[in-house]
Amino acid sequence: MTDILPSSDSVRQLVAQFDAELAQAKSTRDRQTVRDRFLGRKSGVVAAWMQMIATAPPDQKKQIGRWANELKKAIEEIWLGYQQAEAVVVGLQGIDVTLPGRAPRLGHRHPLTLVRDRLEEIFTRMGFAVVEGPEVEDEWHCFDALNMPAEHPARDMQDTLYLASPIPGDSPADHRTLLRTHTSSMQIRYMQAHAPPIRIVVPGRVYRRDDLDLTHSPAFGQIEGLAVGEGLSLADLKGTLLAFARQMFSPTVRVRFRPSFFPYTEPSAEIDLSCWQCEGAGCAMCKKTGWIEIGGCGMVHPAVFEAVGYDAERNTGFAWGIGIERIAILRYQVEDIRLFYENDLRFLEQFPY
Ligand code: DAH
To answer: Looking at ligand 1, which residue's alpha carbon is closest to its atom 6?
Structure first.
């Protein structure tokens, strides 16, 4: 197109062509391309004509200059008309509504929140209600009622964060108050307030006298589970945890109960899941054992039912406690628990909704 020579005919022809091409262009970008072919600083046809003025024989300079300017003016005018048409919106001039908008910076849910939401979703679908309890507890709900006698090591000052003052109007004066060491205390509160049958999960924060390191934190999340009714068995417990593990991690996961001890359950077990990454062959995630521990569980001890006034002959129940960070570490392959608390956006932004 740049070899079209200046003449009054070619001015008319090019102007008409510019107008027609713009009319046909379907987007701002297409119009921009058309514009650049005519008005582009280096290779546009107007620029080419301007350059011709300089190299033309002296007697033609004037005429070529006139045509070139005529073309430039006409084309710029048409272009301006298009720009103005694009910029008009609801009575406002000067806003180009066709420009891409500025994307708002989206926030992210915290990985621990994502895991907690997923846990709640899975257990809700299985018929468990989600309830929360107080983080400031008294010794009776946290220990005594859970069949943990005064000399139990978990009650030690070394493990537990006791508070100076009692909970106003709540706990008897002779009960020390503390930051709950586990969500199991809510088993007691819930059973005191509700008759069986019950099926609840209790997500929430718990506190221990631990220093923050790679795998420990003085505050972390747990999700407690409790089901009470007539005729519940260890098989129901295992089936519930199996259904959970398969939805959370992999449809082929298996659950293993390793005999253990908790004062509030009998029998008690540690919950192990078969390693879904190596299928038991042994890898870094399962520390070459083929199994991964995620928490504790068991059948509710009759002494616990007695503490809350339930008929221990009639009712049976199962319970578990699982660490939320533990689940997040496994699910997201995060090696350092501290990353969850440091609020480094470069870390936090990596987790999909
Ligand atoms: N409370 C225990 C802990 O914090 C976890 C636990 C074990 C909860 C067995 C339970 C259970 O409900 O039955 O380590």
So the answer is: 321
